[in-house]
Amino acid sequence: MPAVLPDEVLIRVNCCGICGSDLKIVSGIMGCLDNIVLGHEFSGVITSTGNKARRFKIGDMVVADPTLTCGNCEFCLDGKQNLCKNLGTGGNGELGVNINGAFAAFVKIRESNVYKLSDNISFEEATLVEPLACILNGFNRLNIKKNQTACIIGLGPTGLIWAELFRLRGIKVFGVEKSEFRCAFAQKFGITICQGDESNGFNFVIDSSGQAFELGVRLVKPAGKLVLFGMSPGHVEKIEPFLIAQKNVDILGVNMDSGTFKQAIKLLPRIRGKDIITHKFGLKDYREAFEVLGYDFASRRFARESTAVKVVICP
Known about the structure:
Distance between the termini: 14 Å
Helix content: 10-25%
Radius of gyration: 19 Å
CATH superfamily of the largest domain: Medium-chain alcohol dehydrogenases, catalytic domain
Structural class: alpha/beta
Largest sheet: 7 strands, mixed
CATH topology of the largest domain: Quinone Oxidoreductase, Chain A, domain 1
Low-confidence stretches: none
CATH class of the largest domain: Alpha Beta
Number of helices: 11
Shape: globular
Strand content: 25-35%
């Protein structure tokens, strides 16, 4: 049982989503501290509070921003906490990376990072608040107008959430995806599957895979925006600066959320979150939860095609 500090709360975890970064950690692509508990897309109920934590009462349904920042560096003071210069030091960092996360019965976190849920949001849907908040960090920087088009490269959970936000703004959404299962799934959301060779291009191209920069540059229209959202450390691609300059392309990098949790909670009921979640497992069935996403524990690799989209573990 985690020991709660004065400014912290203890949360009984009801649900925690498996994120793409969790998959990269267990396969050795991304790093974390040894013996750390993974999991950061979670919802639950307050069960106890530190003696300086007074914003919540026991029994409140909550979600939490898993990134603990210093609040004092130049980026934190400028409202860009996702760029905090002191992550990983002095008690700052990320749940599931260098601080124990929420693939557990209980998790503790600073009260300042916690947000109350409304009654019309289920614990399962609430696991999408964190990825939605991260996506809004990029989506809010787009200047969307009528009759524009968007293309999402990588139609996993985050790709579908991007598509949902474009749908709410009346934008026609196309998608590129290698998996036949996910292509068929995405079409249920009104996404038109393309082969990545559309000559007219798109106003917005979202690389949700973290491995399609070169394709994104080719697909984006002149004066369009290419958003780099997916994380794939170590992946290297060829860059053609002339084509980027010739097209006057804006390239936006997006990393974590940045003051967007309240907006995400308010917006969540408007997206089809229940339909994005395809599987739920108990904590003791974690192996099956990862295996349905294509992970092989023996080789520590993704040895088969995923037969799931969003998987949630429910302790």
